[in-house]
Specification:
Layout lengths: L5 E6 L5 H15 L4 H21 L5 E8 L2 E7 L7 H13 L4 E3 L4 E6 L5
Antiparallel strand pairs: 1-2, 2-3, 3-5, 4-5
Helix pairs in contact: 1-2, 2-3
Length: about 120
């Protein structure tokens, strides 16, 4: 990637915000020349993670970040309580099946994955 960019979307932690998170990430990936297969996988992963974030946020605002890095597009979802809700673990497993780079940073209350554009 030639240039580092950071794209951030902040939303109310409501169920309808999940659709906006999907659209946001799809747009960033398409601008970055990701294949449609990668875009669809990333939309599913961010949907699962954003849904968990909404359900466990306690009213905090939802933040989706997509940053270009040497490894690809690094996507993060905050706040993410994760282990506090059993369905969050299942949703994180879906994201990890699509993107093995999926990691939960418990201390910072966020989860993320890397979309490797070079591997498409």
């Amino acid at each position: 990637m030639d240039k580092s960019e950071i794209y951030r979307l902040e939303l109310a932690a409501r169920p309808e915000s999940v659709a906006l998170a999907r659209l946001f990430l799809a747009t960033v990936l398409r601008v970055s020349a990701a294949s449609e297969e990668v875009v669809e996988d990333a939309k599913l992963a961010v949907s699962e993670l954003a849904t968990s974030a909404v359900l466990t946020s306690g009213g905090e605002r939802l933040q989706i970040t997509a940053a270009t890095t040497a490894a690809g597009i690094e996507v993060t979802v905050e706040p993410f309580a994760g282990g506090e809700d059993p369905s969050s673990v299942e949703r994180m497993d879906v994201a990890a099946a699509l993107f093995p780079t999926t990691e939960h940073d418990v201390a910072r209350r966020r989860v993320g994955f890397v979309v490797d554009l070079a591997a498409q």
